[in-house]
Amino acid sequence: MENNNNNNQLENFKNNLPTRALCTDNLQYGLKVRPAEEASTKRYIQHNDKISNRWIVFDCDYPNALEQADFNNLPIPNIAVINRANGHSHLLYELESPVYTCDNARRKPLAYAASIEYTLTKALKADPCYVGLICKNPLNRHWLTYQVRSENYTLNEFGEYFDIETKPKQGISEISRLGRNCTIFDLLRHWAYTNFVHYSTQDAFFNACFQQASSFNQFITPLSLNEIKAIAKSVSKWVWRNFDLDISNKKFSSLQAYRGKLGGSKGMGGRPNTTTANGKPWELEGISRSLWYERKKAA
Description:
By secondary structure, this protein is an alpha+beta fold. Helices cover 42% and strands 15% of the residues.
């Protein structure tokens, strides 16, 4: 375990702070937005920016969480920030490549990171309701800070320590942090696939997606308005660009015509035609269509 004198990870933490970060010295007085240099002096600070997650942080409301992670062969954090009074801590894991949450972000890395976050929260017995917006500031000497690991993590590396649960079995209100983005994205895209046909313009479709995404945002700690807008923009833009109603209708009509042709072909073993070149002779004979074709076949 490295001590506080080796400041490589702390420099990395400071250099990657948001340009303007939420911060405070006392949570009872709320959060304020300050330039990174000023925010870095506060006890609590926003560690990720609005569009990406470089740090995955876990709130461990019990003493010796760092030792427990090591003892149970779990991945050790890059930085551990510990409350001197009760031993409770925030464990900070730095990613080699940030996971983006903006409207044009790749969804697979985000979903995988959410699953890692969910699985490691359980393994560490960390607080599942921790929002992940701010953390104990490792740059502030109010806390006891340890720099534990110098190498950043790749997402795949976490899979070497434990089996990653990809589908948390939770009610929607219980899903937290990165899992919220993935959940709303999946719910919204399935809604959009079948409802885009009702909108004549992309702007109208975006507004509908935004309203629908807002209705899905029923978490204990909801996503912010900007995050909901980003998801709605991503889904509406992709669906509008890739789902062409005219082309879909033409493909459907062609498919139906092709199936009808097969169905009416005796050689293909399909259903008999509903009419013949002479109309409907079974009606003149007062028998059913199927019986008429049976007799014709036997003749």
